Predict the structure.
Amino acid sequence: MKTSQNPQKYLSELHQEHIDFRSILNFSKDELLTFNHRLEEIAKANTIQEVLMQVEKFQNHFIRQREVIDELLHEIGECERRIAQIAEENNVATDHRKADDHVELREKLETFQKLYGDLKSDYMTFLSKTF
């Protein structure tokens, strides 16, 4: 939710979108934990330097993705606080009250999903070659 140049959406729509965003991000965060556990198993079972370098590379990427997820979750929380404030200031039902759309947040989530999907694909390829 930025300036009034943004298109408007109902507060209830924005809130539902935030719920959806959080679901995607939390699922990805859980998935990263599973991926990391698998990397630990691979590292313990291998002494090949090339494999260990790949493990470290993926671990670093996973750390960065968790940071991005946390940043996006924080931003969603900020947007939710603004929605709550708007709703408190005006007693009109949230499905009748509009606010600026969060275009930038949606774009950030789409970028995250693309980059995360690419990382996940690379990781799956690595797994298939390692075992």
